[in-house]
Amino acid sequence: MSAGRCKASIDFSPKPKIQTPLVSRDTASLITKRFLRNIKPSYGSSGEMRRFVTEKARRVLSSYLLSSSRSQPSSSSLLPPVALYSTAAAMASKLNPPVTVETLNPKVLKCEYAVRGKIVTHAQRLQEELQTQPGSHPFDEILYCNIGNPQSLGQQPITFFREVLALADHPTLLDKSETAALFSSDSIQRAWEILDGIPGRATGAYSHSQGVKGLRDAIAAGIAARDGFPSNADDIFLTDGASPAVHMMMQLLLRTEKDGILCPIPQYPLYSASIALHGGSLVPYYLDEATGWGLETSELKKQLEEARSKGTTVRALVIINPGNPTGQVLAEENQRQIVEFCKNEGLVLLADEVYQENIYVDDKSFNSFKKIARSMGYGEEDLAVVSFQSVSKGYYGECGKRGGYMEITGFSADVREQIYKVASVNLCSNISGQILASLVMNPPKVGDESYESYMAEKDGILESLARRAKALEDAFNSMEGVTCNRAEGAMYLFPRIHLPRKAIDAATATNNAPDAFYCQRLLEATGIVVVPGSGFGQVPGTWHFRCTILPQEDKIPAIISRFKAFHESFMSEFSN
Amino acid sequence: MSAGRCKASIDFSPKPKIQTPLVSRDTASLITKRFLRNIKPSYGSSGEMRRFVTEKARRVLSSYLLSSSRSQPSSSSLLPPVALYSTAAAMASKLNPPVTVETLNPKVLKCEYAVRGKIVTHAQRLQEELQTQPGSHPFDEILYCNIGNPQSLGQQPITFFREVLALADHPTLLDKSETAALFSSDSIQRAWEILDGIPGRATGAYSHSQGVKGLRDAIAAGIAARDGFPSNADDIFLTDGASPAVHMMMQLLLRTEKDGILCPIPQYPLYSASIALHGGSLVPYYLDEATGWGLETSELKKQLEEARSKGTTVRALVIINPGNPTGQVLAEENQRQIVEFCKNEGLVLLADEVYQENIYVDDKSFNSFKKIARSMGYGEEDLAVVSFQSVSKGYYGECGKRGGYMEITGFSADVREQIYKVASVNLCSNISGQILASLVMNPPKVGDESYESYMAEKDGILESLARRAKALEDAFNSMEGVTCNRAEGAMYLFPRIHLPRKAIDAATATNNAPDAFYCQRLLEATGIVVVPGSGFGQVPGTWHFRCTILPQEDKIPAIISRFKAFHESFMSEFSN
């Protein structure tokens, strides 16, 4: 044990201010007996036994010491702390540190987030090794295909957006003559408009808790233009990306583990993590891989009823459209069925629509769930719909700016008041992210100086993403034992890998899920980071991984050939 | 009732896909009887009675309808839904909406945040009235002295910081020759350094979950320079302001309401709100107004023991230094006692140090708690200290940028892993806020081109704040029945008002806390917004308000004279 650790609860040093807790001989003996009596016979190895005894001793002792340090024992037979330590705590590896994993909120312990999980930590280690020992691995760089983070892989930001942000960050530029040579005229005009909408033009001030009213007006106008149905600035809550908005809704809806949220499987693990952190239950519904990750309301109904029969109050349905990690885009008719289902069952529809700009096939288009509901004649009183949007995705990919919003409709005034209160506790989201959210919902228009360059940048990115998606999809489908659905949208492919028995056995032998084993071997052989399907959920006995389509286009051929070579070698190594 | 609302659970329209739940005649009768039986005789007015019956009917019906929509009743005697509605639900104003306040997370309902509470909503309404009907109130503008939001009241941002932010937002500026004319040479150099520390110079990419490593290095260097003790970039978690960092620690430490956090009273209500949201208990300790908001460890000890005797596991101690809302700065000796106390009691020391730059008196200075602990010879193994810092306060006051960090020390590797995991779920904080946090901890140095103008801006702001604090403190102390402690630091004064009996009675008669009543009358008479002491906590029977020192200096004389005139009139109106 470490003497330093020991000092955390009892101090042996002669510093004058420190109280040394004193414990009677009888008490120390009692403590020792008490924990020895509690040893369960079911612990197999002597190591387990030792750990158990140690832990038990630690707990009994520490709880005793906490109380003994508060009240002096009346007995005159006292042991100095060292003596106590030698009699009872000798078997404890350390005394009570103030915070241990065992004493943390169990909801935190339960939460998992595979997108930045073990495989990524492993990749970061390899990256450091590449830097300190070039040539130490059979690749030159780590390719992070684990996360939808376009600019980390070389995607350039949209110029107009960044011009406006720079001007809003440093408004004195607007008074300088040189500025006209450096910025487009419409970015200057837009910056003025935005500043005029911010009280005192203070981009460094906390805004209204929902976000700057002028920016919410712009976003509502953008939503209305997109959907053809009105949108209200009072329904917009600007947030630091979509994740905090999802957390806010989970915090609001989940009371105990008897409250459930219907989530797709596979799902984006923000949902499972957020539900775990807020102490609710994830009620899974399966997307049908055979029909291109189809979403059947019969499956929703079945899972809802099963959950209800177990006493779960299902409060909301999460739909991710376009899909993450699955990349499908819902058909309009399917969306109508989902709206009808939520309306009939009294479920809040939590619509993750952050990939609304990422559609890569001609036969699909994005429709917001609010638009679908309104087009069916359903209004505020019929059902509650929350739409999440983010500046991190789309063609803009501004992940680092942490901008986003949720549009909430169908909630009563007193419920909205509670949402507002929770938003207020966090004061407001960052103003640059707020400005960016207003820009992505109101980009340059025909006639604006930036319009053509803006459209060229936007189309360039989206067309390239579509080509990359198709190239990767074809490549995966060409590999032995791999099947990959069409990448209709979002930023990911979620191929299924039919692993040979021997690979599954090898994974099991090393305490790995088979897909995690595959992904780890891929990383070690190629430097490519993908996330095992087990991090998203999948039909038991099937194995997948999620791979982003985000590496720059000129790198795609090399990635494909490295991936294919690895896969062939892996399959031949473990062939039955 | 609204037909629209009714449609939320039962659909009467002829759309083909909708199942109409069918209910037997017996069941409908049973439902009616059941809720009539439950009517309590204690409801006073007929309105209350009607609401109760309505609510009860709604609940009984809705729970029945949810189950009946899943399984067809076996009885052949069936009523169509309209008949059911007319028999049982006629008294219900609406059928089950999916989310009501009663079905929200009770932790959310419990949470309060006075800084943006009722008084502010009232002020916003008055502001709108001033705009739509100029002259409708006896003042021209609303003066928001409720919140530490310097730039909303005209404080200008530090030029160097904004230059760097603009360049980082739009890095192509760095390649343009005109840029040298618009930006200081050291801001250009700093922007390059920052960009070089960000992988791919991608300010639009998600960073490491703790924040960009290069920026954390800069912050750690700044902390080390401030304290004279080393700081490690791995201990820094960059966050969107200090609030999310506080939430993160509360989420980690609080398991049930049996876990408590020692918090000062008066306190900044983020703490009470966060503890409520995370389901723990606030264990109060009182600051002593008579000794300048003194903090006695005997009081800490007393409250800790009282909480423990009630079965509460106290996990951490919150110290706000400089104090919010109380403005005191702790003496070094007092800090040493607090460190000793936390170490002996095994408490995490949560040190809110966001006002570390805001010290206005010569006889006090800021010492971080980590520095104090290290200077006592205590290291990582002795106690856990978390220091919260923010870009929103100090002389920079960049609230809208939502930047901040926490420095965590004294946690074991496995606990840190859990903190990292929670940070990962939210991906990262906004990069502009991260950059700004690195700048405030590493401002221009002697010899840098910006140094002199930077120092002039900084000193100008801090000296002005000190003058404003003193002027307001003197003004409050000159008012009848008001006493105000010295404003040693932070951005607030927390004067005590000795209200006449008649004022207290008038407040009680209108269901107001007496200090809330005073603040409301102040607002209506002067347009000045301050927060009632009851939002922060105070010794029962005493009344206070929190007023920021942030209005621009040229407005202070007018504010003081308006405040005084109001106070005199209020006191004479309610004099005994």
Automatic annotation (TrEMBL), chains A, B:
BP GO annotations: L-alanine catabolic process
Keywords: Aminotransferase, Pyridoxal phosphate, Transferase
E.C. number(s) listed in UniProt: 2.6.1.2
Listed CDD domains: AAT_like
Gene3D superfamilies documented for this protein: 1.10.287.1970, Aspartate Aminotransferase, domain 1 (3.90.1150.10), Type I PLP-dependent aspartate aminotransferase-like (Major domain) (3.40.640.10)
Superkingdom, taxonomy of origin: Eukaryota
Reactions this protein catalyses: L-alanine + 2-oxoglutarate = pyruvate + L-glutamate
MF-aspect GO terms: L-alanine:2-oxoglutarate aminotransferase activity; pyridoxal phosphate binding
Keyword Cytoplasm found: no
Assembly with partners or alone: Homodimer.
UniProt name for this protein: Alanine aminotransferase 2
Organism lineage string: Eukaryota, Viridiplantae, Streptophyta, Embryophyta, Tracheophyta
